[in-house]
Design goal:
It is a single chain. The protein has four helices and eight strands, in the order E-H-E-E-E-E-E-H-E-E-H-H. It is an alpha+beta fold. The protein has one domain. It is elongated.
Length: 162
């Protein structure tokens, strides 16, 4: 087991610090119900930035995970390659930021920010709502679904008898 990395987010941003690492996808517990299997790993880089008077974190994720295709229910290899910029703000300023700047995501500036929780959150936000193979790569899962007779067909038959 390893110690979870924590940072003072504002100090990290203002001093332009950087943190790199790799984490197994299986270690991200909130992701478990979205995965077909817990294989894969992610390489992450968290950089502190101080631009135009704003404290920010840049979170880069690369790697892959195996999701479940919502069409065929089979495994779907999903490549992860994303970069997010997050504006650090005090808790009382977060609502204002959402109204002012639609292009920049904001998070609460914390003196003890859990880096793995941040990575997990960014990954969850980047995953598709209903992952699917590309068109033609799979067929809908039939499983035990069978076409049942329409219950109103019986009523239609009775109506014709009158």
């Amino acid at each position: 087991m390893f110690a979870r990395p924590f940072i003072d987010s504002v100090d990290f941003a203002r001093n332009g610090k950087e943190m790199r690492g790799e984490i197994a996808v299986s270690a991200l517990s909130r992701l478990a119900d979205k995965l077909a299997k817990p294989d894969g790993s992610l390489t992450y880089i968290v950089c502190g930035l101080h631009e135009e008077g704003r404290d920010m974190l840049e979170v880069s994720l690369q790697g892959g995970c195996t999701l479940r295709c919502q069409r065929c229910l089979g495994e779907l290899e999903y490549p992860v390659n994303q970069v997010s910029r997050l504006w650090l703000l005090p808790a009382d300023k977060l609502d204002e930021a959402e109204e002012d700047d639609d292009e920049m995501d904001a998070i609460e500036a914390e003196p003890r920010l859990d880096v793995l929780a941040l990575i997990e959150e960014e990954l969850l936000l980047s995953l598709p709502f209903a992952p699917r193979h590309t068109e033609g790569k799979c067929a809908p899962a039939a499983g035990d679904l069978q076409q049942k007779a329409n219950p109103f067909a019986v009523l239609a038959g009775l109506k014709k008898q009158q």
